[in-house]
Amino acid sequence: MLKIEENLNLETLPQHVGIIMDGNGRWATNLGLIRSAGHLAGVKTLKEIIKTAVDIKLQALTVYAFSTENWKRPHTEVDFLMHLFSEYLEKEKRELNEKNVKIKFIGRIDELPKSLIKQANDAEEMMVNNTGLKFNVATNYGGQDEIIRATQKITRRVLNGEIKIDDIDANIFESALDTFGNPPVDLLIRTGGDLRVSNFLLWQSAYAEFWFTDTTFPEFTPKEFLSALEDFGKRDRRFGTVK
Ligand code: IPE
Ligand code: IPE
Ligand code: MG
Known about the structure:
Structural class: alpha/beta
Radius of gyration: 18 Å
Largest sheet: 6 strands, parallel
Bound molecules: 3-methylbut-3-enyl trihydrogen diphosphate, magnesium ion
Helix content: 40-55%
């Protein structure tokens, strides 16, 4: 069990944290390594962050592993990433299951390599009844793409006569999203120094607090993760109201 910082107030923890795990490539390049070495190092960080999330009993964690835009990268890097995801699942799924983690893949999963789809489905099935951390892995994920797919699902329900156009509200819309069943994202962390959302969880982070750091993902530590959570606890969340 990780020694949780004394000043971390567990009552003001976010329910759902999103992480844009960025800066892997630059971390590696700066050390004279190939970019893929950075992705490998990023997996190590991810394992530590999950351990911490489990220890503090976080409800939900969604990590950005591969965007719908990332297919534009060199084939070798894309291939490496797909193999890395497979290897990660193979090596980690038992331990995740023992930790009562419930894994879910979000995004256009059907466009991933066939073998990876099967592994993702198997891992989800293995953990389907788990009640601990909801761990969502955004793979071939784009927020705009998710909104389009949700719109298609809802339109089908209208055409089937299941619902009427005027029934469509935020609840119905949310139920058609990949993250259905998760609380809204209340803290969005981006490592690697860039100040943008890059098409991540657009609907879900409508009222998220943002936390940006220059630290690259391979260098990101549980300690810094906990300091982001602590900072979240100090934010004044007004949701449009006045005091
Ligand atoms: C994020 O790190 C991981 C993925 C997008 C898969 P990058 O690979 O984007 O690293 P930088 O931003 O180029 O340093
Ligand atoms: C966002 O990072 C995607 C992931 C972390 C998986 P990118 O590195 O792809 O984002 P941009 O290109 O800098 O916006
Ligand atoms: Mg990047």
